[in-house]
Amino acid sequence: MRTPLVAANWKMHKTRAEAAAFVEAALPRLAVVEGVEVVLCPPYTALESVGRLLQGTAVRLGAQNLHWERQGAFTGEVSPTMLAEVGCAYVIVGHSERRRLFGETDDRVRRKVRAAFDAGLVPILCVGETLEERQAGLTDSRVTDQLAEATADLSAEDVARLVVAYEPVWAIGTGHAATGEEANRVSGLIRAWLRGRFGSAADTTRVQYGGSVTTRNAAEFLQQPEVDGALVGGASLDAEEFVGIVQLAARPGGTGGAPG
Q1: Any idea where the domains of the chain sit in the sequence?
Q2: pTM (two decimals)
Q3: Which of 52, 205, 229, 241 is the most exposed place for a label (fewest CB within 10 A)?
């Protein structure tokens, strides 16, 4: 059984003090939830302080982005080595805001996914279609094209540990989520494509749903057989709301903690 993973993407929110307050409020309640893995992805400035608060707990630290090189003349960038050093276990790669606002291409996403694995990090690979692509009937081809490019340098062993977040661009931050049925269909498509290329390794790949997930709609997605958790944006900024989503994701018989 795949253990669901719920990740909080705080984006450009929370000072170090605000991040610490969130962890102190949420951690006691998260500690008693079993059958789900939890990842917090604060901004770079709060990574080290949040990481210290998470030491000795089952909650993992994640980053929101990385550069594909280990070091070099890349002003303003943060390397995978630096993220590993501060205790990150996960890193979000290819979020639609990175693609849309900062010109991140499929080729750059591919490099970042490979670099994450090389540094011992597990990438949370974001894929998804725009509203225009969806209306044109291009959802499936856009998602699989993104997958093909992002996984071009991966082995089956990598794919077994990979996390894929299906995030329809039109649902991110808009309050308009996909239906559970559609999220399940596309998640199944993702797994079927990975299985066709990498074989049985895809059976352990976790596929999350992301896009306006809240406690009001999370159960609709989390009960779907192909959906293995959620990548939560705005709702993850509130400790009460985020803990509620984590509780909804917990599956009997599952185990918390990072994959081996």
Answers
A1: 5-249
A2: 0.94
A3: 52
pLDDT at 170: 81
Residues of the chain scoring pLDDT < 50: 253-260
Asked if 189 and 166 touch (Cβ cutoff 8 Å), the reply is no
Catalytic (active site) residue 241: no
Active site residue 67: no
Q: Is 216 left (phi over 0), alpha (psi -120 to 50) or beta?
A: alpha
Residue 194 makes CB contacts below 8 A (sequence gap 6+) with 147, 151, 159, 164, 201, 202, 205
pLDDT at 245: 98
Cβ contacts of 167 within 8 Å, gap of 6 or more = 95, 96, 126, 127, 128, 209, 210, 211, 231
Among the listed residues 97, 104, 129, 167, the single catalytic one is 167
Given the residues 95, 104, 220, 226, the one annotated as active site:
95
pLDDT at residue 260, as a whole number? 36
Nearest to 64 by CA among 35, 81, 40, 85: 40
Tokens of 118: 């090389």
Amino acid 256: pLDDT: 40
Identify the pLDDT of residue 19: 98
What per-residue confidence (pLDDT) applies to 252?
66
Other CB atoms closer than 10 Å to residue 260's CB: what's the count?
4
CATH number of 5-249: 3.20.20.70
